[in-house]
Amino acid sequence: MDGQPRYLWVADLLRRPILDGELEPGSRLPSRSRLARTYGVSEQVSRHALRLLVSEGLVEARPGSGYYVRTVPQIHRFSRTDRSSGAGVDPLQRADLGTRTETVCGIVARRLELRDGVRVFRTSCLGMADDMPVALHTAWEPAALTQGTLRTPADAEAGTSVLQRLGAAGVAIDRVVEEVGVRPLREPESSLLKLAPGLPVLVVERTHYQGRRPVETSDLVGSIDHCRLLYRLSLARSPKREGR
Amino acid sequence: MDGQPRYLWVADLLRRPILDGELEPGSRLPSRSRLARTYGVSEQVSRHALRLLVSEGLVEARPGSGYYVRTVPQIHRFSRTDRSSGAGVDPLQRADLGTRTETVCGIVARRLELRDGVRVFRTSCLGMADDMPVALHTAWEPAALTQGTLRTPADAEAGTSVLQRLGAAGVAIDRVVEEVGVRPLREPESSLLKLAPGLPVLVVERTHYQGRRPVETSDLVGSIDHCRLLYRLSLARSPKREGR
DNA sequence: AAGTGGTCTAGACCACTAT
DNA sequence: TAGTGGTCTAGACCACTTA
C-alpha cells in the first residue's frame, strides 16, 4: 500500500471485484465518505478513486444516490461494408436533422478536393436507440452534382443510400475510403448526442469516389461505449495489391 | 460565469485560445497557483480545470515544470485493406515479442470457434515509432494448423503475412472480419505500451476465415492519439449484397 | 430528514525542474 | 533555492435522491 498513491490503491481494491464479476452490474458501491472511513483515507482520496473508475467507464455516479457498477451498455454494431440501405446510421432508428446549403470550409473542402467557398449540401441525422442518441452522421456533397434535379439529399426519399441517389443522378460511385479514429467531442455535436464535450468519441471519416473524384464525404461520430464498427472484407481473388 | 461550475469556466477560457491556435503548441500555460490568483478561484479549481484539459488531450503536465500546450502528435495510419506484408503493425517498425503455446480461453476460443483448452499459438509484437511503442498486436491461431511444419508463427521468417504463411501451409484465407471499438487499456498491455491502465485505446479485433472456419484471430491495440485506421473499399461490381 | 455526489476553500508536504 | 505539479487533509455548502 506504499509507493503508490492512495487513491490508486483504493481504486484497485474496487476495480478487482468489478472486473471479476463479484460486484454485479447495477449494484451500489460504498459512498465516498464510507470508503474514506473504511480505508482510513480522506474523503478527497476516495472521491478521486471513484472518479477514476467513472472515467474508466466501470462505474456510474448518480448524484444524490450513489456510485453504481455500470450495467453493460447496449452495443450497436455498424456494418461498414454493406451499402444496401439508408443513411450512415444503418441498424439504428434514424432521426433526420435536415439538409442545408453552405459554402465549404477548410477540412471538408480538402476532403472533397474543392476550393474554399464552393457550395455544398450538408445533411445530418442522428442514430437513435431506445429514444437515446447514439451516433451522429453528417454528410457533405457538392451542390453542383444534383442541384436542380430531384436527386438532392433534400429531395430524395428517406432511406435512400448515397449510392442509389447519386447513381440515379448519373454519378457512379466505385470507391470508398474510410479513416477511423478517436477524438474529443466538440460542441455542436455534444448537445445533439447529449454527451459532455471533451469526451472521446469514435469517428469515421468516409469519402465516396467516382474514379479519382471525391463526390461525397461524411463523418460518423459515435459514443465509444455503444458503438462498434464492422468490416467484412473478401479476399476472394488474389491478395490485394499495394496501395498507399 | 454563473450556473456553470467555476472549473469549467476556467477550462473554457484556456481551451478557446488553444483550439484557435493563439497559444502555440509547446507554449507554457500559467501555473495552477497563478491561474487561481488571476481568476480569483481556489487552487483546487484551477487544478481541476487543468486536469480536465489534460484528460482531453489538449494539454500536457510536466511535473516540476508546468502545463504545456500539447504538440500535435505524430499520426500513424494503419491501412487495413492491403494485406501485402508483415504482421499487424505494418507501416511501423516491428519489435517482436515472440510466440507462445497456450490453451485457449473464453473470448478467444469463441472467436476461433474452439472448445476451451485447445492449444493455440499466441504471437505478439509491438509497433514502434521513434523508439516509442505505438501499437500492440496479439494474434492467436490453432496450433493444429501448422504444428510440426515450418509454417508455425515461430518458424516463419519475420515479415511474412498470415496469408502467405497459412497459404503455404495449405490454409487458403478468403475472408476477413474486423470489429473496431474503444475500451480502457488493461494491465498486460499498458506496461508494454507504456501508457496508463484505464486510458481509452483503439482496438481492432480481426478474424481470418477459410470459408466458414476461423483460422486466425488478432487484437490490434493502439493509442487513440497516434493511431488511425484506413479502409479502402472497392465497389467495382454490383452493390454488396446483404450480410448478417 | 438523512445521505449522497458535485463542487469549493484553505491550507499542507513531497519530488521534481529550473535557475 | 524558488517554483511547479501530484497528492493529501479537514473542513464546507448545495441540489438531489431516498426513505
Automatic annotation (TrEMBL), chains A, B:
One of its GO terms (molecular function) is DNA binding. SUPFAM superfamilies: Chorismate lyase-like, Winged helix' DNA-binding domain. Keywords: DNA-binding, Transcription, Transcription regulation. Pfam families: GntR, UTRA. This is HTH-type transcriptional repressor YvoA. Residues 4-72 form the HTH gntR-type domain. CDD domains: WHTH_GntR. PANTHER family: GNTR-FAMILY TRANSCRIPTIONAL REGULATOR, MANNOSYL-D-GLYCERATE TRANSPORT/METABOLISM SYSTEM REPRESSOR MNGR-RELATED. One of its GO terms (biological process) is negative regulation of DNA-templated transcription. It comes from the Bacteria. Coiled coil: none annotated.
